[in-house]
């Protein structure tokens, strides 16, 4: 059994554990521990996900083989100051936004660690993990890392200079796709579909398109062009989206985040 501990047990941490539960890893190959400062909420969240709450970060580190820093970025320094001696011999995985290898290595120069950016689709075992190429994992660590995350996500190793933009695309795009799926469902309701049916069709269309792009390995433009028959209905919709600035709006949304 692999003992995995989360310091911070918010939405992202819980999405990861939900993915482990969905895939059967939880309680079969790994045990999960969690620490968060609000005890009643932590107890309730852990109970729902077959996880064990811990009273302190130190207790969690002592029980864990892998420690996942899932707290707020501004809390990372304080957490590491409290636990640095308890982290010896552990693999530390940081999911706190903006905490890259250099920042983490200042605090943990003798401890193996990697910074990642996952997305919430991990809960459905259909996520993305952006892994910073610059890390201090050895081969044993890497096998452990893959055991934990490859059943839940596409793992993409990215150079440090591109870590932010890759994380933005992986982490923020589910919200954009949710907005797109909602708009599709609204259109369906406008033309007579019930809300539940329209929502299911929209969600499945988004899911299916993504699955095909991954499985077939095609460029999105090729995938789009294959669906657009000459003079057909789909190309009329695509032209209207382009006229209304669909592609421009998506790019500008990413630019607004990267700032």
CATH superfamily of the largest domain: NAD(P)-binding Rossmann-like Domain
Tell me the number of strands: 8
Q: Low-confidence parts, pLDDT < 50 over ≥5 residues? A: none
Helix content: 40-55%
Please provide the ordered H/E string of secondary-structure elements.
EHEHEHEHEHEEHEHHHHH
Total domain units? 2
Strand order of the largest sheet: 3-2-1-4-5-6-7-8
What is the end-to-end distance? 43 Å
CATH 2nd-level architecture of the largest domain: 3-Layer(aba) Sandwich
Q: Shape from CA axes?
A: elongated
Strand content range: 15-25%
Explained architecture:
- The protein is of the alpha/beta class and 259 residues long.
- It has helices at 11-23, 39-48, 57-63, 76-83, 101-107, 139-149, 163-190, 195-216, 220-227, 233-243, 246-258; strands spanning 2-7, 30-35, 52-53, 66-69, 91-94, 112-118, 127-132, 153-158.
- It has two domains: 2-158, NAD(P)-binding Rossmann-like Domain (Rossmann fold), CATH 3.40.50.720; 167-258, ProC C-terminal domain-like (ProC C-terminal domain-like fold).
- Strands 3-2-1-4-5-6-7-8 form an eight-stranded mixed beta sheet, sandwiched between helices.
- The longest helix has 28 residues, at 163-190.
- It is elongated.
- 29% of the residues are buried.
- The model has no long low-confidence stretch (mean pLDDT 94).
